[in-house]
């Protein structure tokens, strides 16, 4: 790839060590800035497997097929014809290298914290159309969001209503918000939906201190809210063995999903 960030060798190493589902971070092909995301944008075309313009999709598809693994491909800046904005798009591939899910970030990171962080993702990213991103594997159904989507429990619950037993959030949390909120949000979404939750955050960009710096801290949470594995800021691979019987057990022991008071409140889908 043209990007200096992504390393195919890390996916190969994970596969050699027995990983069946490999997850990459949000915007893994480019630094998280307006300039870089617009510079690195690329289309997603039906013939992506043979189209050189679809560099990220083509590469991930070939990698998933050659490794015979599922790959949740973080996200990349997807070109929108006629617009100076991009979609923040995550592609998931099965073992044959076929796309089984396309998720375009739904909630955009526009914040203004006095003395802290000012960031307006909506200036150069277009929110994805209404969608519930979920795909099926031989293990279970897996739901998908991107970074800021994790702050919206309504979306995660809709994924669970459609059968998700795992939810994955490729991410790129800012240092300040990551330190305060990322771990809490991951644990909360795992506990309140009684699912395994995977999050993959970008490492610190040691090559360019001027670009957006991520909190990192990739992790896997159990349905009990237990941290099964966690990284820090560095570029690394983390592994977790997941026993899906835990999802069934906790849902039988603490029947949160059955105890909602539909006479008081309901969550209604618009799609």
TrEMBL record:
Looking at the UniProt record for this protein, which Gene Ontology cellular component terms does it annotate, in alphabetical order? mitochondrion
The record's listing under PROSITE patterns reads:
CN_HYDROLASE, UPF0012
- Record GO biological process: asparagine metabolic process; glutamine metabolic process; oxaloacetate metabolic process
> Where's the CN hydrolase domain?
1-244
Q: Which GO terms describe its molecular function?
A: omega-amidase activity
Q: Which UniProt keywords apply?
A: Hydrolase
Q: Which Pfam families match?
A: CN_hydrolase (PF00795)
Source organism, top-level taxon: Eukaryota
> How is this protein named in the record?
Omega-amidase nit2
Which gene specifies this protein's sequence?
Contig3870.g4134
């Amino acid at each position: 790839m043209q990007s200096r960030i992504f390393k195919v060798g890390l996916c190969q190493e994970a596969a050699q060590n027995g990983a069946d589902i490999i997850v990459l971070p949000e915007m893994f092909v480019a630094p998280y800035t307006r300039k870089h995301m617009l510079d690195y944008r690329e289309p997603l075309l039906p013939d992506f497997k043979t189209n050189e313009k679809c560099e990220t999709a083509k590469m991930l598809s070939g990698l998933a097929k050659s490794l015979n693994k599922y790959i949740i491909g973080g996200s990349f800046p997807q070109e929108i014809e006629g617009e100076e904005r991009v979609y923040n798009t995550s592609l998931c591939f099965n073992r044959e290298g076929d796309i089984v899910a396309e998720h375009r970030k739904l909630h955009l990171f526009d914040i203004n914290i006095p003395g802290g962080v000012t960031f307006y993702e909506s200036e150069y990213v277009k929110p994805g159309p209404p969608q519930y991103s979920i795909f099926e594997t031989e293990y279970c159904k897996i739901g998908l969001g991107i970074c800021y989507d994790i702050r919206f429990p309504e979306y995660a619950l809709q994924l669970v209503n459609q059968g998700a037993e795992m939810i994955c959030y490729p991410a790129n949390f800012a240092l300040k918000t990551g330190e305060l909120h990322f771990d809490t949000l991951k644990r909360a979404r795992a506990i309140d939906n009684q699912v395994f939750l995977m999050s993959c955050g970008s490492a610190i960009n040691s090559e360019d201190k001027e670009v957006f710096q991520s909190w990192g801290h990739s992790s896997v949470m159990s349905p009990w809210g237990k941290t099964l594995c966690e990284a820090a800021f560095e570029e690394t691979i983390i592994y977790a063995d997941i026993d899906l019987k835990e999802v069934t057990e906790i849902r039988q022991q603490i029947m949160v999903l059955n105890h909602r008071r539909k006479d008081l409140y309901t969550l209604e889908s618009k799609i």
